[in-house]
Amino acid sequence: MAAHHDIQPLPPDRILVLAPHPDDESIACAGVIQQAVRRKIPVRVVFLTYGDVNEWSFMIYEKHLVLARSAVEKMGMLRHDEAVAASITLGLSTNDLTFLGYPDIGTLFILV
After folding, report:
1. What letter does residue 2 receive in the DSSP assignment?
2. CA 108 to chain CA mean position, Å
3. How far apart are CA 3 and CA 34, in angstroms?
4. Does the pLDDT at position 46 exceed 80?
5. CA 13 to each of CA 53, 62, 108: distance values in angstroms, whole numbers, following the listed order
């Protein structure tokens, strides 16, 4: 079994977190982000999408499946706002966040 090694960012390190959707950065990298913030190491979080085409989100928030364009955009803005709030809780500022706004479930077509 491999030994467990904590990631310990130290100056002059910089951290870039690429998150496909809002909440991925918190689920996967919250501990590293908090360590970096405590050590005053720059962190940039880049969200590829707003996560606006997530049927599970609609099921949780709206209690049913929603496909109307305006509802999808509203869900994207809600997830954006949640990502901003979570990032602030982790110690980041809004200046540390970038939202690219690529289409959710459409990034594969951009790459090809």
Report:
1. P
2. 18
3. 23
4. yes
5. 34, 42, 31
Closest CA to 105 of 48, 47, 53, 50: 53
Pick the most confident of 5-9, 49-53, 56-60, 82-86: 82-86
Domain boundaries, the chain: 15-102
Confidence of residue 47 (pLDDT cuts 50, 70, 90): very high
Angle (deg, nearest 10), helices 24-38 and 69-89 = 30
Specify the fold of 15-102: Rossmann fold (3.40.50)
DSSP letters spanning 3-31: PP------TT--EEEEESSTTHHHHHHHH
CB 26 within 8 A of CB 90: yes
pLDDT digit string, tens, across residues 87-101: 999 999 999 999 999
